[in-house]
């Protein structure tokens, strides 16, 4: 018997809760898929016929949901693909700080202050102009794979949502 103590520490995050498996042949246009560890929205799917050596293949063309880059992947249609959990949440805008962060009001009344201003010029202009004009704004935040980003801005008209 050994007197040594063994401690096991997890050095890597498996990311199991960030994705779920789905058969490649069942993923459709408009759905989401993980390509090169990036969450993407599928814009085109084509399936090849089964060849001499087996499987039909699915060719995915997808756009990264955070940076807009086009990515492609080819997967046998009977194999599983990782599909990211993508959520979209609306928050009311409270403030924009000088250092490029936004302060948002959550549904339970607390504040969320860890989001940067969006990099998309159109959304950024809409956000800054609306805030400068004193309008009540709601921002939609897309979250997936541990990343969050403002993806849309809309004005609350007449105080009703």
TrEMBL record:
Q: Look up the domain of life of the source.
A: Eukaryota
From the Swiss-Prot or TrEMBL record, what is one GO molecular function term?
Answer: translation elongation factor activity
Looking at the record, which segments are called Disordered? 1-23
Question: What does the UniProt keyword field contain?
Answer: Hypusine, Initiation factor, Protein biosynthesis
Q: Name one GO biological process term.
A: positive regulation of translational termination
> CDD domains in the record, alphabetically?
S1_eIF5A (cd04468)
Q: Where is the signal peptide?
A: none
* Boundaries of every Translation initiation factor 5A C-terminal domain copy: 85-154
Q: Does Magnesium appear among the keywords?
A: no
Q: What about PTM? A: eIF-5A seems to be the only eukaryotic protein to have a hypusine residue which is a post-translational modification of a lysine by the addition of a butylamino group.
Give me the stretches of Basic and acidic residues compositional bias: 1-12
Presence of keyword Cytoplasm: no
Alphabetized InterPro entries for the sequence: IF5A-like (IPR001884), IF5A-like_N (IPR048670), IF5A_C (IPR020189), NA-bd_OB-fold (IPR012340), Rib_uL2_dom2 (IPR014722), Trans_elong_IF5A_hypusine_site (IPR019769), Translation_prot_SH3-like_sf (IPR008991)
In the record, the note on similarity to other proteins reads: Belongs to the eIF-5A family.
Role played: Translation factor that promotes translation elongation and termination, particularly upon ribosome stalling at specific amino acid sequence contexts. Binds between the exit (E) and peptidyl (P) site of the ribosome and promotes rescue of stalled ribosome: specifically required for efficient translation of polyproline-containing peptides as well as other motifs that stall the ribosome. Acts as a ribosome quality control (RQC) cofactor by joining the RQC complex to facilitate peptidyl transfer during CAT tailing step.
Its name, as the record gives it, is Eukaryotic translation initiation factor 5A
């Amino acid at each position: 018997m050994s007197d040594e103590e063994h401690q096991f520490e997890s050095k890597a995050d498996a990311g199991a809760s960030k994705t779920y498996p789905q058969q490649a042949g069942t993923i459709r246009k408009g759905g989401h898929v993980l390509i090169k560890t990036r969450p993407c929205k599928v814009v085109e799917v084509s399936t090849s016929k089964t060849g001499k050596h087996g499987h039909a293949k699915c060719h995915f063309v997808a756009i990264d949901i955070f940076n807009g880059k086009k990515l492609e992947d080819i997967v046998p249609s009977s194999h599983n693909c990782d599909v990211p959990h993508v959520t979209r949440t609306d928050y009311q805008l409270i403030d924009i700080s000088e250092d490029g962060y936004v302060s948002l009001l959550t549904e339970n009344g607390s504040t969320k202050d860890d989001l940067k201003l969006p990099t998309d010029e159109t959304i950024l202009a809409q956000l800054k102009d609306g805030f400068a004009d004193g309008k009540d704004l709601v921002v939609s935040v897309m979250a997936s794979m541990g990343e969050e980003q403002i993806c849309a801005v809309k004005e609350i008209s007449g105080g009703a949502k």
